[in-house]
Amino acid sequence: MNAEIDYYVVDANDRLIQVSESLRETMGPFVGNSLWECFPRAHEIFERHFSEARESGHELEFKAFYAGAAMRLRLLPAGALLTVYPERLAEVDVRTLGTLTESLRRIEAVLADQASEQLDPRAHGSLRALP
Amino acid sequence: MAVAVGTSSDHPYVVLDAEDRVLDVSPNAPAPFPSLLGRRVHEGFPPETEALYGPYFERARRTGETVEFSQYSDGHVSLLKAVPIRRALVVSWELIGFIDVMTIESLRHSIDAALMALTVRGETIRREHTRASMRVIAGGA
Fold first, then answer.
1. Whole-angstrom Cα distance, residue A37 to residue B87?
2. Do B108 and A129 touch (CB under 8 A)?
3. Disulfide-capable partner of A92 in A4, A6, A68, B50 (CB 3.0 to 4.6 Å)?
4. A29 — contact with chain B (CB < 8 Å)?
């Protein structure tokens, strides 16, 4: 069992400058590049949270859906740097209509579960609009 | 084995024997179909696949009639046509949608688009069946 916590660090321009060993395979090749150039449409989901964390100087946590998964992200600002701890909570399972439906229900539950937490409102509202 | 009967010229197809072994694959059939020649077609896909497609194949063989159906599998929505020809079954398909999981918005839009495509194509198939039946009735009148 890999007990290492996933994390990555971005600079003031959201350039990836460091990744945990556990994320080396998926994110390692992108070190030195802007997150937003490497991960399509990530900018529109995550960037405002990154800015908010930097501006406030305080830890920030939120949930969002991206690339087939509902995830919780914890952001720790340190000067211009931002350490991001992503945690995958539920994933879309596209194999069959049954697995797709069930996985979407799980994701909706995960995102709805943070009613009292800070939520990406677009994620929750959009998911509820699913058939 | 060259089979063109019952398939649209630009849609990929596979030819199956009575045990669902792949006898032939059209040149435009994507992976993994070419690699499945001589093997059961279901071996190239998740275990659920046989349960999803098998009943339609069985119906086409049993009735001797073409079976058209839509199916969702592995993020893709397809319209399929199973045409029994002698002891073989020619299965052609058209991809009409896929599930884009990049963002909630793309997920929602792709599901909406797939549902719309299914509705439109389903209606087209139903109209074609009705039209064919009407022609038979008109011919007999």
1. 53
2. yes
3. A68
4. no
Each residue's pLDDT tens digit, B33-46: 999 999 999 999 88
Question: Residue A112 sits in which domain range?
Answer: 8-116
Contacts A126 to B, Cβ<8 Å: 104-105, 108
Let me know if residue A36 belongs to a domain.
Answer: yes
* Cα nearest neighbour of A111 on chain B: B104
User: What is the interface size between A and B, counted as CB pairs within 8 Å?
Assistant: 49
In-domain check, residue A122: no
In a domain, A34, yes or no: yes
Q: Report pLDDT digits (tens) over A32-81.
A: 999 999 999 999 999 999 999 999 999 999 999 999 999 999 999 998 89
Q: From CA B91, how far away is CA B78, in angstroms rounded?
A: 12
Would you say residue A129 lies in a domain? no
Number of domains comprising chain A: 1
